[in-house]
Amino acid sequence: MRRSTWMVAVGAALAVAAAQGVAAQAAHENSQQEKMTTCNTDAKTKGLKGDERKAFMKSCLSEKGSSASAGSAAAAPSATLNSQQEKMKSCNADAKTKGLKGTERKAFMKSCLSGSSATAH
User: Who's near 31: CB < 8 A, 6+ residues apart?
Assistant: First the structure.
């Protein structure tokens, strides 16, 4: 009887551990999807096509991935952002802070990038 109780307890512990692993995996996939969505939007806003888009996406996805580890060597090139990149970064941060999604975010980004949201800061 004790052996079966022990087996049930171990099984329950394994089920909880597996569920936590699945939740962590889902969170990682969501953040990766978020990065991809943001980079796609940025590329579309800039009107990039072909090889330019491919290079931008590669840079954007690796840059966004390394932002969590501030101070790393991979994040160093972002220190020399041009004004358009700085504007994009600022507008993205503002949209995220405001919790904007979907069409609201799209409208905000368009307005922000065109410069008409300077009063919104």
Answer: none
